[in-house]
User: Which sequence fits this backbone?
């Protein structure tokens, strides 16, 4: 069962759609579907703010080369042990991005390239959404064999920024599994960067039985 999404004001939605239709009729690349418009409205609250945010995202997507990222085979190969969009979905049909934290190291990566790879994963997962059913994602952070040298705060900051600015309301749930006790200190820092809505989507899963409420554990990779 998909969680209840906050309803948007239908009058606001209509106004935003009219504005975007004007822009998209002149430049079809600016088009966003209704699900996307509703996500921006939920995240940015007002028609003006949502409209401005969409234009900024469209500009960013062009400048950052988002549509071409899937062609960058070298980048994808280099970072494919850092995250994976799984073939399977969680129990309500969300695409899953699986991130094995043990494969990360802030001293052994190019922050710009790794951020591009994260955008590639967000794009890939977003395209897999059955938007009529559920239009958000499940991100799984697996902290098995995690050490403090794997803690890459800058990459997390970039992910949070991307989700809030350019993929608003795309995060449905963030599951943290196999968390060691000392991660509590890291989480205290990270939580300070999240708004209340996003922090509420983060769930620490402490047992396989709990994990079964969200997904079938067998679908998680063992080869990363």
Assistant:
């Amino acid at each position: 069962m998909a969680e209840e999404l906050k309803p948007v004001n239908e009058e606001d939605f209509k106004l935003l759609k009219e504005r975007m239709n004007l822009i998209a009729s002149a430049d079809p690349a600016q088009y966003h579907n209704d699900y996307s418009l509703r996500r921006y409205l939920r995240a940015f609250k007002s028609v003006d703010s949502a409209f401005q945010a969409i234009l900024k995202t469209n500009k960013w997507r062009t400048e950052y080369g988002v549509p071409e990222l899937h062609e960058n085979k070298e980048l994808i190969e280099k970072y494919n042990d850092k995250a994976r969009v799984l073939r399977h979905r969680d129990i309500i049909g969300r695409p899953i991005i699986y991130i094995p934290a043990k494969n990360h190291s802030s001293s052994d990566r190019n922050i710009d390239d790794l951020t591009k790879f994260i955008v590639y994963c967000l794009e890939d997962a977003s395209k897999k959404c059955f938007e009529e059913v559920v239009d958000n994602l499940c991100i799984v952070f697996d902290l098995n064999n995690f050490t403090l040298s794997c803690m890459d705060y800058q990459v997390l900051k970039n992910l949070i920024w991307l989700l809030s600015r350019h993929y608003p309301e795309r995060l449905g749930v963030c599951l943290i599994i196999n968390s060691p006790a000392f991660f509590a200190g890291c989480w205290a820092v990270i939580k300070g960067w999240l708004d209340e809505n996003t922090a509420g989507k983060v769930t620490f899963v402490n047992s396989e039985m709990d994990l079964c409420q969200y997904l079938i554990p067998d679908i998680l990779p063992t080869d990363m």
